[in-house]
Amino acid sequence: MKTLLSFLNRIYAYLVRYYPHSYQEEFAEEMLLDFSALAADANKKGIFSLILFCLRELIEFPANLLRIHVREGRMFKILHSQPVNNGLRGALGFGIAFTLTVPLSTFVYENLSFWLNDIASRLQTFFYNLFHLQQASDLLSWIPTALNSLLTDLLFGVLLAALFADRSKYPRYILVGLLGWFLHHTVGYIFSVFNFWGFLTETQFWCFDYMLLAFSGAIFGLIFVVVKSERRLALPWLAMGAIIYPVFAYLLAKQLFHLFIFGTPWRFVGVTILMLILVASVFVVAIKLDNKRRLPWVVVTGTIAYPTVRLLMLAVDKFIYPSLISADLTLVNITVTNGIYGILFGLLLGLGLGSQKENNLPQLTT
User: Fold this and answer.
1) H-helix or E-strand containing 328?
2) Most buried one in 210, 214, 311, 336, CB count within 10 A?
3) Where would I find the H helices in 140-289?
């Protein structure tokens, strides 16, 4: 726990650097001491109290930071800074993409599902007659869902290009955005096919779900690494990953499902190892593609932010605004919830991207 508290204190010390220098000189030391004391007190009460404390700080810190900068008259400069500029663009892009995910999928399903299922059925029959491999034939069954997501994939690629790219680079950004969204969506769908929550305990499935969110966040971070990379292999690697990751996840998950027919702890161990491999491989690819061969912090931000936003929304729904996430799963409610999720995640990812590119970060005055 001491290591965790030390880590939280270092994060808070870094965030304090975004206050105006004059404010830092007067209050930084006091703020750091107060945060350390409050975190230690919450830790004594248990991990749940510490989580609530961190979530409360995530809500209050941005509001306090905004208030201080407004008071100091520095908001115009802040809004034009690279981290905030990227954060607002990310919030807009992911907000629109997440908002339209369900309506677009519903439209495609209602209007094209018969045609897509017919294509998948014909391909399955052809593939089985030609190779007599039932496993590979079964894999084709997710074609309707994969094609069903293409409109959202394309939408995200267009938004990525419009918000972050020069006009000359629009095709590259659109293709990278399309592949990245397809990869995140398809891997998530493949795991849902195996109905793991029916064979894991509630705690195990909770952990598995957040590991899957971490993988999706890492993929979204990798998108920005690929579009900014000057290496010629960046786009081909992502294209291969869009094929290899889903196939690898499907085959290994299928083996786990059949090896451990009954709900045993080994199935959860196997799923955990699989998710760790997937996330770690994203980091390896990102480091290889990064021009300076350093840890791409935008991938770190995505890996942390995607599950964190889920926790934040659940905390707000439970303790602050209970009607935010409605149990009535209508199209409107799901669309609104997805939009809020996308805005928050896009904001955090954009801030992470901008901070990585910013050369002159504010320094904590001592």
Assistant:
1) none
2) 214
3) 143-148, 150-164, 170-193, 202-228, 234-259, 265-289
Nearest Cα neighbor of 252 from 265, 270, 276 is 270
Domains of the chain by residue range: 2-74, 83-357
Report which DSSP code applies to 325: S
Q: How confident is the model at residue 230 (pLDDT cuts 50, 70, 90)?
A: confident
The tens digit of pLDDT for each residue in 100-142 reads: 887 877 776 676 656 656 666 666 666 666 655 555 555 555 5
Please provide the size of the chain in residues.
366
Residue 128's identity, in one-letter code, is Y
Contact 195, 254 (CB under 8 A): no
Q: What is the DSSP letter of 322?
A: T
CA atoms in the 13 A half-sphere facing the CB of 210: 14
The token duo for 196 is: 């793991």
- Residue 318 to residues 47, 50, 312, 322, Cα–Cα distance (Å): 17, 16, 10, 5
pTM of the model: 0.69
Helix (H, G, I), strand (E, B) or coil at 293: coil
Reduced to 3 states, what is the DSSP secondary structure of residue 159? helix
- The pair of three-digit structure tokens given for residue 42, joined into one six-digit string: 């919450």
Q: Sign (positive/negative) of CA torsion 120, 122, 128, 130?
A: negative
Nearest to 39 by CA among 14, 59, 78, 12: 12
Of residues 147 and 321, the one with the higher pLDDT is: 147
127: which residues sit within 8 A by CB, 6+ positions away? Answer: 133, 136, 137, 140
d(CA 235, CA 152): 20
Percentage above 90 pLDDT, the chain: 13
